[in-house]
Each structure stands twice: as structure tokens, then as C-alpha cells.
Amino acid sequence: MRTITSTEVQQLLNSFRERYAYFHLQIKANSSDRCTTWGSTIYVPEAWGTYSPDKQWIRLMHESIHLAQFQQYGPLRFAWEYIRPRTRFVLEQDAYRQEFIAVCQTQGPDALRYKRDYYVNLLSGSAYYYCTPRPTVQAWVDQTIATVIGDLP
């Protein structure tokens, strides 16, 4: 485990600025605790400034995958893939895999195991419009957690 500093978060943001034209963070008014990415903008909750660097890092690592996906697919294909339930889950699998790695790096494997039910409920629930059956999500989360923990140095 390692503690992320605010300097490391700024370095990560700077790497996004170098990699993605017009990258910026935008505060979402009256928003949930989750972040959203569209194009080269990551929309963050109003409470973003109160998040620990570890929590910011974890969220940014997840959203970095969506930045790359948007750049790869372009706006029309990304939107098309994201509104379709099966392909949305595939896009989110890549982002959550990266989030799981970041959780392990900053909080340890036990923290990721502890958050298993949170992730199952999130990915199979209303936040993602119930688009993937719970047993499918459970199997994916369990397999991915085992793989991420197994790949730790």
C-alpha cells in the first residue's frame, strides 16, 4: 500500500492535459458522489476538494479509462456503445478494473475485498440503470478482484 499525495494527483492531472486536448475537471452542481467523463472533461462532485488524495486518485484512475475510450472511439461511437446495456458494461469493466487496481495500491487488497458488495450493488443497480444482471456482475467482480489481487507484486 502507498499513500497518494496531492502532488501525485496534480501530476496525474497534468499527464491528462498532455495526453488529451482540452482536458479539464468540471465541478458538477448538485451531483452524486460519482464522477462522469464526456470527451476530455471529467465532471467531479461539488465535494471533490474535500476528498483525500487517495480517493481522488482512485476516481481519476477509473475516469482515465473513459478518457482513453472516448479518444479511441470518438463521440458518436462512444455514446452509442455507452447507451447500449451490454457494451456499457464492457466499457465499465475496463474502468472498474483500473479502479480495483488503484484501490489495492492505495488501500490494500483487504479494502478491495471489503468493497466487493459495494461494487456489485453499484454495477447491477440504478446507477447503471440495472443494465447487467446481478449474477453476471457478481461473477465479473469476483473474478476481477481475484485477478487484481493475484497480480499484486
List keywords for this structure.
mainly alpha, 8% strand
Question: What do these coordinates show?
Answer:
By secondary structure, this protein is mainly alpha-helical. Helix content is 65%, strand content 8%. The protein is built from 6 helices and 3 strands, in the order H-E-E-E-H-H-H-H-H. It has a 3-stranded mixed sheet. A hairpin with a 2-residue loop joins strand 2 and strand 3 (41-45). It is globular. It starts with 5 loop residues before the first helix and ends with a helix. The model has no long low-confidence stretch (mean pLDDT 94).
Question: How is the topology of this model organized?
Answer:
Blueprint: H1 6-19, E1 24-28, E2 36-38, E3 41-45, H2 53-83, H3 85-107, H4 109-114, H5 116-124, H6 134-150
Parallel strand pairs: 1-3
Antiparallel strand pairs: 2-3
